[in-house]
């Protein structure tokens, strides 16, 4: 019997509604994700991003030195500025602080999913794109990590468009997107370079002069940021992370990715790009193990799983006599969503098998009894009221210290006050100092004793703290011995100049993608 040919998913051979299916799925995910609005922002990073954005507004430009963390000593500011610039623009337009964070949180996940689909369709075809969309919509732990980190989610979107521009030979867009990644996230630009190196290795082909110039051009555009980092490289260090004591796995997703590795290896040219992408993300393996396995590192796994899903669907349709690949893709996508996940906690014997644990079930609220460990938020009406009380009690420039750095940091950011605590642990203060003794206000949350934090009784005795406010959540003390306020933030470039430059870069990227290039140039990445 002759083998039955399976028709690919394209505009001419598929039912009309199938062509709209990806957009219906994307719209549904966007609505379900936005419906979680009251829980935004998630822990923990948004509090830090808001604090920096507020300093940029006060300074009217990006910072080279961070005066309002580790106040009054401060420290070099080594976090890339693009996300903070976008938040600062929202704040300058009059957007309330918490609404600005919620808008970015609500937008970042649907934009990432949409980018996965659009870029996959440009590079690999519509059937693989649908499969990649389905597999990318499964791991809820990746959603939570992207929504928390924010900057890495934005840089992942830039990374996918960079890959599309690079493959299509769009030199201006490629160089601008590579530089933009360096200005958005500390590691994603290097992951992009590692992905290109991995792709060249998997292709077993030498890098050509044009593409080498693209990388050099992106590096040249990022030179001002590199110079700033190199000037303070001794201040940067990697810290241990509690998140690495846990892992959140979807075995069926990784099995599909294994099939995708085989499928991509059999093909040539741009279809080996996901192998290079995975090689680049391996740079996260240490010390960001959780993020590599359960967070941002799932992006190449999802793309490879999309290839595996599409390959299985093609095979299954051949065996069952189905003439359209999309039937098998959707069917297997549903089965993948129903597959169990494994939550591995700290210590021995803490492996949980969880059913109905994929993102669709979480977004539809079908498993409220087994929330993800990272599915948590700090902003509550209690925090808002506490922030307003701190703002009312304190003066501009008064320094706040808290026994819970991120919750206290969020209160300080909402109250527009500097903090002696730190939320970005990778950069220590410029010199040793006593953060409690330097703080006018002490915010003590009623939680268990934290590592490295003295007992409350000892602090009250040592600093003669005066209790000013107390509720069921926290106590607010005044330190009578402190008189100096924090140093006001200072900018290095006016905010409007940086915003105009960012708009110019985005316009150059858009122009290059809109331009109709020579066919040989656009298909250069296939050979």
What does this structure look like?
With 527 residues, this protein is α+β, with helices and mostly antiparallel strands. It is built from 22 helices and nine strands. The chain has helices spanning 16-34, 46-59, 82-92, 97-124, 126-136, 140-149, 151-167, 171-184, 188-203, 209-221, 223-231, 251-266, 273-281, 289-294, 298-320, 325-338, 359-363, 381-393, 405-415, 456-463, 495-514, 519-522, and strands spanning 65-66, 75-76, 247-249, 341-344, 351-354, 400-402, 441-445, 466-470, 474-478. The strands form three sheets. It has a four-stranded mixed β-sheet with strand order 6-7-9-8, with helices on one face. It has a three-stranded antiparallel β-sheet with strand order 3-4-5. The protein has a two-stranded antiparallel ribbon with strand order 1-2.
